[in-house]
Amino acid sequence: MRAMKEIGTVAVAENLARVQERIEAARRRAGWRSEVRLVAVTKQVPPERIAEAYRAGVRHFGENRVQEFEDKRRWLVLPEAVWHLVGHLQTNKARRAVELFDRLDSLDSARLAEKIAGAAAAMKRTVPVLVQVHLGEEATKHGIEPELALEMVEQMARLEAIAIEGLMTMPPFLEPAERVRPYFRRLRELAEEIDRRRLPSVRMSELSMGMSHDFEVAIEEGATQVRLGTALFGPRPAR
Ligand SMILES: *Cc1c(COP(=O)(O)O)cnc(C)c1O
């Protein structure tokens, strides 16, 4: 048992080291434009492996389902971990999500924003959020259409208990990853456009984009957060 566990520890730590080198190389190519935060996406990853990542130095974690995180969380004691919700949230789970997560990175409707703001206000909290933008068809149907993003952000900005910090997207899976570049660029341009409006209480300092197969291209296009599952933990079983 002990030997197995140690092999596992080495694996996540080694994957992390390799990924960090690739992140730094991509930042160098991009002229060190921004800091890049690694968010380890731990959906379907058991608590022991999450703890390994924490021991290896990861502090930001992402889950895409409220219920799954609620089930796993009791097995995790990671005092400095910051938990991001990165998946679609149903409005009836907004309150629970605000209780469980530190950051909500996949805000995809005005109605949801209102629910979240209501829950956060009741808890006397301000929740940092990213607005998810829908670019392209395949990857997910969730997210706000780019043409409506500015208007939505303006609406959401009136809600006091949420702090809009940037945009997130989940583009289609395309090979080679270079083909995803236009989507990343589009998200950055959209953030710049919104930023120029200087909306009160809206910052566009975070761009959450890039997953295991395309994060280097995302960083070259200005990502400040990359969301990595497979590159750290290996392939997930099919749901
Ligand atoms: C699963 C998931 C990821 C990580 O995907 P990998 O390809 O395994 O790196 C990133 N973002 C979201 C929203 C996800 O659901």
Notable traits:
239 residues, alpha/beta, TIM Barrel, globular, binds pyridoxal-5'-phosphate
Could you walk me through the main structural features you see in this protein, from its secondary elements to its overall organization?
It is a single chain. By secondary structure, the protein is an alpha/beta fold. It has a single domain, classed as TIM Barrel (Alpha-Beta Barrel). 43% of the residues lie in helices and 18% in strands. The protein has 9 helices and 8 strands. It has helices at residues 2-29, 47-55, 66-73, 94-100, 110-122, 146-156, 181-196, 215-220, 230-233; strands at residues 37-41, 60-63, 82-85, 103-107, 127-133, 162-169, 202-208, 225-228. Helix 1 (2-29) crosses helix 2 and helix 4 (94-100) packs across helix 5 (110-122). Bound molecules: pyridoxal-5'-phosphate (PLP). Pyridoxal-5'-phosphate binds at residues 41, 43, 64, 86-87, 170, 211-212, 227-231.
